[in-house]
Write a structure and sequence with these properties.
mainly alpha, about 0% strand
Length: about 350
């Protein structure tokens, strides 16, 4: 335990030092036209890496561009002033404390254990799922809303009941929709500063969950639900960082939040916080390993590819990249075209 604690301290200290160095350098947002070329050059330089690692490299770059867009970070960022550096240090202290502060970390949804038990018993899963959803009218509404959204809807006729959703979507897809609907309220903006961020994060999460499910359908058919759940868990970290940073700024009302610092902290701390939430919620070792981006865990690729597809498709809707650039980037991570093309087509289909 002592050795592990020292290792963690060294790692966190290194991360803090990286952020400090990064904050001292003026930064320019990457022009949209250069995003795809930059990803491809990085991918070409790392062809010896596993596909999941190449997907993660690409996803890190496009995700940071999404955060820049969501926070409206200025094209030219000035070096971080001491007052903002103190905010950064306070956020590190809160989110990397040994004991998690419940003020910042979301509680596991009450119905989540029931959903996980239903997953473990596939023979009775349809009935259990229907009962879980039926007990909560708000959850029912959210599930049906997701089922009828453009990225999930596969038939002209609307889905009006949970039973119909089971028939049309299948039990595996419905499990993921129920989990997604359970967490949807967490992402609803309640803050006046940068309210665009939680909205864009949620839309990316919806798209990424669908992409991860479609990837798993081809590559890991028994893990469709787990692939979707991974995306949801991974999205919680950036949301917690966003809340913690704005809370620290609220304690300093004379100081306007620094958009570039929000981008940097979200990118740097988001994955760490997601991991801690997954561990706190006592998720399976496989899910924890995937959130750690371990290349030997098959679900890691579902997470990395799902987030990459979700981010690219959202950037395309925001006119940051074209559909052709997004598809080219998705093809560059090493997946077969037979997997990439249907996912991209689903995510970019019109209403």
């Amino acid at each position: 335990m002592i050795v592990a604690g020292i290792a963690i301290a060294i790692l966190l200290g290194g991360l803090a030092a990286w952020l400090i160095r990064r904050a001292r350098k003026p930064k320019t947002l990457m022009p949209p036209a250069d995003i795809t070329a930059s990803i491809k050059s990085r991918g070409d330089a790392s062809t010896s890496l596993p596909d999941s690692a190449r997907a993660e490299l690409a996803n890190n770059l496009v995700t940071e561009r999404l955060w820049q867009l969501a926070f409206a970070a200025p094209p030219e960022a000035e070096p971080l002033e001491p007052a903002h550096a103190r905010v950064r240090d306070a956020v590190f202290a809160v989110l990397q404390a040994e004991r998690l502060d419940p003020k910042y970390f979301p509680r596991r949804p009450t119905l989540m254990p029931q959903l996980l038990r239903a997953v473990d018993d596939p023979r009775s899963a349809p009935d259990k799922l229907a009962r879980i959803v039926a007990h909560d009218p708000v959850l029912t509404s959210d599930v049906l809303g997701l089922a009828n959204s453009p990225i999930y809807r596969t038939s002209p006729a609307p889905i009006e009941t949970i039973q119909r959703a089971i028939v049309v979507l299948g039990v595996d897809a419905l499990r993921g929709l129920v989990a997604t609907a359970m967490l949807q309220p967490v992402f609803r903006a309640t803050r006046s500063n940068f309210p665009r961020f939680p909205r864009m994060l949620w839309e990316r999460t919806e798209r990424a969950a669908r992409a991860a499910e479609l990837y798993a359908l081809k590559a890991l058919p028994a893990d469709r639900f787990e692939a979707q759940l991974l995306i949801l868990l991974s999205a919680l970290g950036p949301l917690v960082v966003y809340g913690a940073v704005l809370d620290m700024y609220s304690q300093r009302p004379q100081l306007a939040p620094n958009a570039t610092l929000l981008v940097d902290l979200t990118a740097a701390l988001g994955p760490q916080v997601s991991l801690r939430i997954a561990q706190q919620w006592e998720t399976s070792p496989r899910l924890v390993a995937a959130i750690q981006r371990r290349p030997n865990e098959a679900l890691t690729m579902a997470l990395c590819a799902g987030e990459l597809f979700g981010t690219l498709s959202l950037l395309q809707t925001q006119h940051v990249i074209t559909a052709d650039e997004g598809l080219a980037t998705a093809n560059d991570i090493g997946l077969a075209s037979a997997i990439v093309a249907p996912i991209w087509e689903r995510l970019t289909a019109g209403p």
